[in-house]
Amino acid sequence: MRHRSLLILTTVITTGALTLTACGSRDDKGGSDNSSGGTTVVIGVDAPLTGSLSALGQGIKNSVDLAVQTANKNKEVPGVTFKIEALDDQAVPATGKANATKLVGIKDVLGVVGPLNSGVSQSMQADFDKANLTQVSPANTNPSLSQGDNWGKGDFKRPFKTYFRTATTDVVQGKFAANYLFKDAGKKKVFVVNDKQTYGAGLAAIFSDEFKRLGGTVVGTDSVTVKETDFSSTANKIKGSGADSVYFGGQYPEGGLLSDQVKKAGAKIPTMGGDGIYDPEFIKASGEANDGDLATSVGFPVEKLPTAKKFIADYSAAGYKDPYAAYGGYSYDAAWSIIQAVKAVVAANDGKLPDDARAKVTEAMSKVSFEGVTGKVSFDQYGDTTNKQLTVYQVKNGAWVDVKSETFQD
Q: 199 exposed, middle or buried (CB, 10 Å; 0-12, 13-18, 19+)?
């Protein structure tokens, strides 16, 4: 469910540092006074809340909501009440851009968590940067978002100062997957497929380069189209290639169908993918038994992290309809990083938000450091997470089971 805009508030109390309009909105970049004399700060959320990826999007939204509830309950930032404004991007870049414009226009928004998709993020970054509005994605993995388009040539340049993420990049994930498939699974001949999207194509390219560097062979490549369901042509190519495995760069709706159709074509080989296929829906999409299929995902299994026990218990107690899914812990940590940045800005300004609150929050983000749900949360000079923990999952008896976790050194 979307939350209503929080721009218009009720009766306000004027403090010395605040200039208020008649409706109670601050005449600056964020932080309306509320009726109790405190300040309201909104954390925006952008994710696919409907459509085929809504299982992930709802988990993102709910986890941010839980962080906000926790901050308010514990009075994490004295005098500040946090609220969320959740918008549905439907995994469509144009919709994400429109949502970015809307969030920028809500003065109380001092940070945004999201989006899920790297391609959607590309459409939003410039708008957030122009407005000095911090963005923290719990799921984007495309390297160019933080390191520039020429990162593959060793030319690293941060495009947008407002962009951060709690998920590690595909540079790490793709190499990690290739190492596991070649060394641990013993596969030497892989057929690589991607969905032609920013995330999928990028991840597949990084995987392929590393697999070949290790000594493996990419016996064939192909691409599929998002939202199509007949991949029999690709499946037949895979069957005829002699591949001992498939690597798919894309999301679970297409990935599950591809795995199903490859097996129906007679190629009884595992399909591997990145965090985009790590979801129960991938398994459900296949009519064939897909035990043995593999996926990598950022971080360690949340359920096995001592740091996540409270998050899991609190999420359950909150009674959310949807599970926190693959990115719940990273979404909570993304929201908490914004909350900590706001806390630092308020503490440095005598307990009040400054007039240039958005810019100050962005500056404070680079210094954020805390023990979060997913482990140590901090950001490097590009806004990337310093946490490079990853896990390989395998389908066993119709469910994802973690088979290897490590901190990867790229």
A: buried
In sequence order, the 6+-apart residues with CB closer than 8 A to the CB of 290 are 256, 259, 260, 263, 271, 283, 395
Q: Which residues contact 206 (CB under 8 A, 6 or more apart)?
A: 170, 171, 173, 174, 175
Distance CA 296, CA 45 (A): 25
Report the length, in residues, of the chain. Answer: 410
Task: Say how far apart CA 255 and CA 282 lie, in whole Å.
Answer: 7
Nearest to 126 by CA among 169, 151, 97: 97
Contacts for 350 with CB less than 8 Å, ≥ 6 apart? 17
CA–CA separation, 45 and 61 (whole Å):
6
- In DSSP notation, 35-74 reads TTS-EEEEEEEEE--SSTTHHHHHHHHHHHHHHHHHHHHT
The span from the first CA to the last CA of the chain, in angstroms, equals 40
Q: Is the peptide bond before 270 cis (omega within 30 degrees of 0)?
A: no
**For residue range 9-33, what is the model confidence (pLDDT) as tens digits?**
332 322 233 222 223 333 334 676 5
pTM of the predicted model as reported, rounded to 2 decimal places: 0.82
Instruction: Categorize the per-residue pLDDT at 408 as very low, low, confident or very high, splitting at 50, 70 and 90.
Output: confident
* pLDDT above 80: residue 344: yes
